[in-house]
Design a protein that fits this description.
The complex is a heterodimer of chains A (about 250) and B (about 425).
Chain A (H helix, E strand, L loop, with lengths): L4 H12 L11 H9 L4 H16 L4 H14 L5 H5 L8 H11 L1 H14 L2 H13 L6 H7 L4 H12 L4 H8 L5 H20 L3 H15 L9 H19 L2
Helix pairs in contact in A: 1-2, 3-4, 4-6, 6-7, 6-8, 7-8, 8-10, 9-10, 10-12, 11-12, 12-13, 12-14, 13-14
Chain B lengths: L2 H18 L1 H9 L1 H4 L11 E6 L3 H11 L4 E7 L3 H15 L5 E3 L2 H5 L6 E4 L6 H10 L3 E5 L8 H11 L4 E4 L2 H4 L2 H8 L6 E6 L21 H5 L9 H4 L20 H16 L9 E5 L8 E5 L5 E4 L11 E4 L3 E5 L17 H12 L7 H20 L3 E4 L4 E2 L3 H4 L13
Parallel strand pairs in B: 1-2, 1-4, 2-3, 4-5, 5-6, 7-10
Antiparallel strand pairs in B: 7-12, 8-9, 8-13, 9-10, 11-12, 13-14
Helix pairs in contact in B: 1-2, 4-5, 7-8, 8-15, 10-13, 13-15
Classes of the chains: A mainly alpha (about 250), B alpha/beta (about 425).
């Protein structure tokens, strides 16, 4: 397609000075170019480079937000280093993940795992959220360690492991010695993995997990928080056995 | 209600009577309302409810549930003080008490073991996280449409509902109540087999570049944004009016799919119900470029060949065998002889709200069960992505991905702002 370079240069100049409340009309040319360059690797690479320059600059949070959104559509492994550099920046960490999560691939996953080692608090939960969304099996050892971390991190790790349906995740969850809200999240994730196994045709594996959760929860009185978990496990056992007997 | 659920509610009342003495238990012991009468069931047989997000739509939902004799409404939650206070006052006024609890953070409401069900009418970016959290804490859910913001929300919500055996109803009352004039004749076979449907509704949401202002004291702005990207407070970002052309959250990409999913949930819902497509998801979206001065438009095609056309230019003249609902939905059939099919309907009394409450009691699946709602919303989501990418797409329902199209797959989900996790 034909791209008006001068027009695009002007638009990127406007982006460099952009902030919320400013005239966004000049950005329309960039919006159009992002879509229209599909199939043209050279033009896309040029755009990607320009967005990367915005992320590396002293541009406003709004401008970096915009660049990350566009990289979430066209970004490649080439943009991972510049986006990853923002993962520890509280103002821009989420939008960096917004781009990286959609870029995916080994480079983005590695960047998220690496950031999880170095950031703390809510930013770390953000990394966990993205790694869960990517079902990143490579992050299971890190997530398993976090099951004994402070409450919110452990809770996030427990939730994330349920969305990475590997045998390693299942083993980490089965070995977790945690109670309370994190303990319930662990069991919820075990149920989630059992569902994944069932969907994949691994009835024996699913049944084993359902039985393990049911046994671990044990008899609980009506009104007890864990009763729903036990009922869910028993329901899973019934469904799994039904499917087994009907095949 | 299941025996277990009945036991749970009664146990709670018994426990609170013992633990809290007269403070909580007294109204249930001494008032005629608590004991029930010919019109009102005793408190132990009422569904205990709370509401989350009680602005425009939420207030309507609250009033519908509050007016039911088989509901005991005990808690409200909103990040805006005025809406929260108004909602509490409506409850207290109804019961003549001051007992209704008011929360800023939905997690506190969901942590209560005495609540059986919640209704949720927040902006769309909260729907999946709140619905899943409610299922995990043993609540049934009435969720305003559009139920999903992104395609990935749907399977996660269905999984949570099914895992815990929760009743989760979508919230488009119009599907059954506004479109009966076309639903009944189509299910009766009057136009034969539906071949195509034209829907007229505005398009997808837009980016928001509004300036920032200091957030007023009466809103928890960080919690309003929740999993959406951070951006500065502006009243136009979070206004709950029904417009989609700006200055309302329904206008903006981070919080809504725009008219396409908002009114689209109704129109697509009505069309999909009338054509009996609720169990299906489209398998492709086709981009029709602008030509001859007419704007581009998109259609989706179902596995049985039925097409839904979104904003196809000039298609609202009805020539038999066709049928239209005003200027918003038009069905074209093949005119073939076809047996009449019974039209699925609500359970219980009181429209879609009564359907939900009846299903909470019986544990049946409601009229707009979350799975049917997710299937329905897949159509406007696919249409919206085709508009954004300006090209045709193929959808693999089983894999919940686009067919060999990693660029389009990127639009299935968005990273959630910390500390929120699906």
């Amino acid at each position: 397609m034909a791209i008006d370079s001068k027009n695009l240069d002007d638009s990127f100049a406007a982006l460099a000075a952009f902030d919320w409340g400013k005239d966004a009309a000049p950005l329309a040319a960039i919006d159009a170019a992002v879509i229209a360059t599909r199939g043209d690797a050279a033009l896309r690479a040029d755009l990607e480079k320009r967005f990367g320059a915005v992320l590396s600059s002293a541009a406003s949070r709004a401008a970096k937000d915009y660049a990350c959104r566009k990289l979430s559509i066209i970004g490649t492994a080439a943009s991972v280093p510049v986006a990853a550099a923002l993962l520890s920046d509280a103002d821009n960490s989420h939008m960096a993940r917004y781009a990286l999560q959609r870029i995916g691939g080994p480079e983005a996953r590695t960047a998220l795992r690496k950031a999880l080692e170095s950031v703390g608090g809510e930013l770390a939960i953000g990394m966990i959220s993205s790694l869960a969304d990517l079902a990143d099996a490579g992050s299971v050892p890190q997530l398993a360690k976090l099951l004994t971390a402070d409450g919110p991190l452990a809770l996030a790790a427990a939730r994330a492991l349920g969305r990475i349906p590997t045998s390693e995740s299942a083993a980490a969850l089965a070995g977790a010695k945690v109670g309370g809200e994190v303990g319930r999240a662990v069991k919820d994730s075990q149920l989630s993995i059992a569902e994944s196994r069932l969907a994949a045709g691994d009835r024996a594996g699913a049944l084993a997990l359902y039985e393990a959760v049911s046994k671990e929860v044990g008899e609980v009185p009506a009104g007890h928080r864990d009763r729903d978990v036990r009922v869910a496990a028993i329901r899973g056992m019934v469904v799994t056995r039904d499917e087994t007997s009907s095949t | 209600m299941t025996p277990a659920a009945q036991t749970s509610r009664r146990d709670f009342l018994g426990k609170t009577a013992a633990a809290a003495g007269g403070i909580v238990a007294a109204p249930y012991v001494i008032t005629s309302k608590a004991l029930g009468d010919g019109l009102t069931p005793p408190a132990s047989d009422r569904i205990v409810m709370g509401g989350i997000g009680i602005g425009n739509m939420g207030a309507g939902d609250q009033n519908a549930f509050l007016g039911r004799p088989d509901v005991q409404y005990v808690a409200v939650c909103d990040v805006r003080r005025k809406w929260r206070d108004d909602a509490k006052n409506r409850v207290d006024g109804k019961y003549g008490t001051k007992d209704c609890a008011a929360y800023v953070d939905f997690r506190e409401l969901l942590a209560r073991d005495d609540i059986d069900a919640v209704h949720i009418a927040t902006p769309d970016h909260w729907h999946a996280i709140m619905t899943i959290a409610a299922c995990r804490t043993g609540k049934d859910v009435y969720l305003q449409k559009p139920e999903t913001l992104v395609l990935r929300d749907g399977p996660a919500m269905i999984a949570a509902a099914r895992r815990y055996g929760r009743v989760v109803s979508g919230g488009s009352q119009r599907v059954m109540e506004d479109y009966r004039g076309v639903v009944d004749p189509i299910w009766a076979g009057e136009i034969g087999n539906v071949k195509s449907i034209d829907i007229a509704v505005d398009g997808p949401s837009m980016s928001c570049y509004l300036p920032g202002q200091p957030a007023p004291d009466d809103i928890d702005w960080n919690l309003w944004l929740g999993p959406a990207p951070w951006q500065p407070y502006h009243p136009g970002r979070c206004d709950g009016n029904f417009g989609t052309k700006g200055n309302s959250w329904r206008s903006y990409f981070d919080f809504s799919g725009g008219s396409l999913t908002d009114w689209g949930a109704h129109h697509c819902g009505g069309a999909i119900f009338a054509a009996d497509l609720r169990e299906m998801q489209p398998e492709k979206a086709t981009w029709h470029p602008a030509e001859s001065g007419k704007p581009a438009w998109v259609s989706v095609t179902y596995p049985n060949g039925v097409e839904i056309h979104h904003n196809r230019p000039g298609q609202f003249q009805t020539v038999p065998p066709s049928l239209a609902h005003g200027n918003s939905i038009k069905f074209v059939g093949d005119g073939a002889a076809r047996a009449r099919k019974p039209v699925p309907s609500y359970r219980g009394q009181g429209g879609i709200y009564g359907d939900f409450i009846e299903c909470v009691k019986t544990r049946e699946r409601p009229f707009r069960d979350i799975e049917l709602a997710v299937n329905t919303m897949t159509a406007p989501h696919l249409i919206g992505i085709a508009y954004r990418l300006e090209r045709s797409l193929q959808w693999d329902r089983q894999a919940q991905k686009f067919l060999k199209d990693p660029e389009a797959d990127r639009f299935c989900d968005r990273a959630r702002r910390e500390p929120w996790i699906l």
